[in-house]
Structure formats: C-alpha cells, structure tokens
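#onboarding

Welcome to the new folks! Below is a worked example of what a typical request in this channel looks like: someone posts a single protein sequence, and someone else replies with the predicted structure as tokens. Don't worry about understanding the tokens yet, we'll cover that in week two.

Example request:
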Amino acid sequence: MRIALYPGTFDPITLGHIDIIKRAAALVDRLVIGVAINRDKGPLFDLEQRVAMIEAECAALSAKTGTEIVVHPFENLLIDCANDVGAQLIVRGLRAVADFEYEFQMVGMNRALDSSVETVFLMADARHQAIASKLVKEIARLGGDVTKFVTPPVKTALDEKFR
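Example response:
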C-alpha cells in the first residue's frame, strides 16, 4: 500500500492545498493530511476547526478518487509523523523558487533522520501559485474578497472569524 503524508498548518485550507491534495491522491492508495499543531504560529483557526475544514473538503474527493484520505494532527517531527502513519512519501507543494530553497533544506534534514522516507514535490497549478494562507487571512481581515482562493465553506468560516 502506497501511503503519503501531506503536512501543513492549513490555516485555513486553500484552493492551492486542495489542488495538491487532488494530485497527490492520484499517486497513492492512502493520503494522510498531517495538520501541524504548531503553537508558535498562533493559528487563526484552532486545531479542531482546521481538521473539520479539511475533512469536509476531502470527503467528496476521497469518494470520487477511491483514495483513502485521512486527517492526522501532529506536533512531533515531520519524519516521526511520517513513520507514525506508515508513510513512505512526504508530499510538498511548491509555489516559487523561494519555497524550493526552504524545502531543499528540509529534505536534507529529513533524509539524515530517516533515508527510507522520500519527499515528492508537486508544483502548484499556475492558477494557485500566488495563494498563501497568510495572505488569504490578511485579505479576509481587511474585508477583501477571498472567493478566488478558498471554497465557500472556508470563506464563510473566515467571514465569521473577522466579523
């Protein structure tokens, strides 16, 4: 069974994340969405809200593709999380060259910790390359329209947060 881990904070999940999830799901039998707890980042949405949003967004996709998609919160090292869920692959999305530089360092560290887990990079679709959760939150906070960047349920959740 091919198992991949797609980690992130997903605060909130965006169309860019969903694009990577769809494409990763086509490559594996089971895709684990690792939701980083990461208390230092001070997320807008608490862990339960982020998990619920991801589960809601992935339910139909899992049914459509036949790939099992599960959500798994984690607070340990990424490589330890990959081992915890039995992942042979870590999926990372890339938007720009700056992403690659950071990810390149992460791959090196993860390989030093456990060389049996591979990292696979998926380039963001051109329509989603500018989308970043941080920017989506800023636009929503300032009353801008985020409908091009998130699904309607996520937009509603953002609107409620910034009301």
